[in-house]
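Fill in residues.
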């Protein structure tokens, strides 16, 4: 060890010795050779002491691989803010603070001690004040600052666009073959190998494309077109529900393989990360990343939609309000698994109502897609729109493997994302019209078939906000003679989309729609699977008037 001390008192010498002894003990405990170089300088001014503490902490962390905490004790000269009176609660401490010269005065004294004249110090002060004032004046037209540089091609305002996002069947086949191609010297888990084979066969034979395949096709198509994709979440490489497998692992060597990455073209990249269990930290990072990548798809995925609770401050303060407060648009996409399958309060609801309450002036896109093709078009639309808005997607759980939740190749090839989606077999003259969103559609279809109620039309609201009233009105037009219209949801009455949609539907229909769903509750869902099934069956029967 080499220890350099600049000590003015015996006390500082003792402090340096104590610090050296502590590090020597640490070295012996961790069985490291004593090769670290330690320089301790005490008796310096506060700025240099702070810098030394930071440098020492960084060197220690990099050398020993252990965390270091640097505690810096500082103060606010004006208290909480300029209008505060800190003497009310901290009179003794603030008497000391008041008597202490401000930092710029201390620095001026230091310059004078080093031979700088008062005239030079005054000139420095004037120059700095002018630069600060010039920066303030230049930033006054702030409404333009968010759409410069890499954002200059992005439009400011939201508008309803019919974005064509389809891809030819031949292109889809080529993409799926490339996304399922495994190097000959790579040995994936046998179940994963079979899953990849089924994906390829489903597209080649047009035998029904499931959700995981639809997502992989969306990613592959964007990467092939030169769009970078970044996805992070607590289990995003595999997918919480074992549907994605973007990163494969060799069962013999542990090596990884990312077939999607090989498709990236024109400088595009694919990054898929399993993130730490800190939703607020990770979502905050991804929001910042989205501000720097307007032409890329940045996705944060919650392990369950409920887990976004831990990131609510980022959602409320930044994602929902960033454009309004700071003129900073974001194309951040959030995947929030949602659906009532009897898994309890913490694994059912992604809190649809929260995002709809945060929605205003087209600040968010809140979407609950119900087919793999819709999900495919939605992800492609996010990058092909001329503007950027955060996209909140309620993704499925049980629908990932539901045989009825499949799409044909033609659904991917034609058109784009559809905000309102009537059931293909709706009767021309329905006695009842049911409006719904997401997974409950498949439960209603199954119950309608079981009860032979062929006089019931079912319309899906795939995009809840901004709600396309014009498209909904068009979907309702063939059913003007229907005796009643009901909104059906799985969530409790004080949750889900009901509170948001109720006034809009009443205005459109000219009367109050009937509500069908669980009664208001303090918890998002019950904890008993048996009770869940009873509730679900009861609301289905109520919806169909059984």
């Amino acid at each position: 060890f080499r220890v350099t001390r600049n000590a003015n008192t015996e006390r500082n010498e003792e402090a340096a010795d104590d610090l050296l002894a502590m590090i020597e003990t640490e070295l012996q405990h961790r069985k490291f050779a004593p090769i670290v170089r330690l320089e301790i300088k005490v008796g310096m001014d506060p700025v240099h002491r702070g810098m030394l503490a930071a440098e020492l902490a960084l060197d220690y962390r990099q050398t020993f691989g252990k965390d270091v905490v640097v505690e810096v004790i500082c103060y606010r000269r004006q208290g909480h803010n300029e209008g505060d009176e800190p003497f009310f609660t901290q009179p003794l401490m603030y008497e000391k603070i008041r008597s202490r010269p401000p930092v710029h005065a201390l620095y001026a004294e230091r310059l004078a001690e080093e031979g700088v004249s008062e005239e030079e110090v005054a000139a420095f002060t004037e120059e700095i004040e002018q630069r600060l004032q010039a920066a303030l004046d230049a930033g006054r037209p702030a409404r333009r600052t968010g759409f410069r540089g890499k954002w200059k091609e992005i439009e400011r305002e939201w508008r309803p666009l019919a974005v064509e996002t389809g891809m030819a069947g031949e292109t889809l086949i080529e993409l799926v073959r490339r996304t399922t191609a495994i190097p000959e010297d790579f040995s994936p888990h046998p179940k994963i190998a079979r899953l990849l084979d089924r994906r390829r066969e489903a597209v080649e034979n047009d035998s029904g494309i499931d959700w995981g395949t639809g997502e992989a096709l969306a990613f592959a198509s964007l990467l092939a077109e030169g769009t970078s994709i970044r996805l992070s979440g607590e289990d995003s490489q595999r997918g919480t529900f074992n549907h994605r497998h973007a990163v494969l692992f060799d069962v013999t060597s542990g090596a990884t393989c990312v077939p999607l990455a090989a498709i990236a073209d024109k400088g595009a990249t694919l990054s898929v990360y399993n993130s730490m269990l800190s939703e607020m930290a990770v979502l905050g990072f991804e929001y910042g990343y989205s501000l720097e990548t307007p032409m890329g798809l940045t996705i944060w995925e919650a392990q369950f939609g409920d887990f976004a609770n831990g990131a609510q401050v980022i959602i409320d303060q930044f994602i929902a309000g960033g454009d309004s407060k700071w003129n900073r648009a974001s194309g951040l996409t959030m995947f929030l698994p949602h659906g009532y399958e009897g898994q309890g309060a913490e694994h059912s609801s992604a809190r649809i109502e929260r995002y709809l309450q945060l929605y205003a002036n087209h600040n968010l896109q809140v979407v609950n897609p119900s087919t793999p093709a819709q999900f495919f078009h939605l992800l492609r639309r996010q990058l092909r729109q001329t503007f950027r808005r955060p996209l909140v997607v309620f993704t499925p759980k049980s629908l990932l493997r539901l045989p009825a939740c499949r799409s044909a190749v033609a659904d991917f090839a034609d058109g784009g994302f559809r905000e309102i989606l009537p059931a293909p077999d709706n009767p021309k003259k329905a006695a009842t019209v049911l409006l719904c969103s997401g997974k409950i559609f498949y439960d209603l279809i199954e119950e309608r078939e079981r009860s032979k109620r062929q006089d019931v039309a079912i319309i899906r609201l795939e995009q809840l906000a901004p709600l396309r009233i014009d498209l909904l009105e068009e979907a309702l037009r063939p059913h003007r003679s229907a005796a009643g219209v009901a909104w059906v949801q799985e969530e409790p009455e004080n949750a889900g989309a009901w509170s948001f949609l109720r006034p809009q539907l009443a205005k459109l229909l000219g009367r109050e729609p009937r509500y069908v769903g669980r009664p208001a509750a303090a918890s998002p869902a019950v904890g008993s699977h048996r009770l869940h099934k009873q509730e679900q069956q009861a609301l289905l029967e109520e919806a169909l008037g059984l």
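The longest strand covers residues 484-492.
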